[in-house]
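Section 5.1 Outputs to date
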Amino acid sequence: MTSTPLGRRFDGQVALVTGASRGIGLAVAQRLVAEGAQVVITARKPEGLAAAIEVLGDRQAVAVAGRADDPEHQDEAIATAVGRFGRLDVLVNNTGINPVFGPLLEVDEAAARKIMDVNVLAALGWTRRAVAAGLGADRQGAVVNMASVAGLAPAPGIALYGVSKAALISLTVQLAAELSPRVRVNALAPAVVKTKFARALYEADEAAAAAAYPLERLGEPEDVGAAAAFLASADASWITGQTLVLDGGASLRASL
């Protein structure tokens, strides 16, 4: 995969990225920092966040540990962004869980509620608090929600996860309508990306998994980080309420 020199699209801006101790969230935070942003990252485990700060640099990033669906944690993280860096310009709702596998009718109801709490309602809570803290107050703000191709079509075995991501896509549209013009809200819908979260989908035979994609490879966290940075930047200033599909061309085959 080739790369081009990075610009400084986020100089003077502050971002908050949830679920950012590793994988896609960390890649998003790295891209934002590389382009000039100061970043607050969150995740459940302090040790993972400490390792991420080593990567990002403690002058540009600060970590706040907690559960994404905990309102007190949301308040603390957003207060940290404003208190440490003075403002908040970008919110990336990246946290997602998928603790169950199997048909919808067999999913434990408590697990189903937890999936919806973390994958959907938490994104609403983070956005509500970010706007209250000044997101979009003196310059156009941006929210990027991390959805999934599982929210666009049947997803056997992970159907409840797909339901939650479909709801997140709808939430994106509704928030975009309500928060325009001061805050843009968009979503990303990746297919299989090489992360610990998705390892079960490709680790047995990565070549076979990659063969499903016309571009003949799985996604990398950096692919998603670059797309998130685009949607969060002024380069996307006339885009809101959209879901950008990152699937290596897999949807082309579905249409043939």
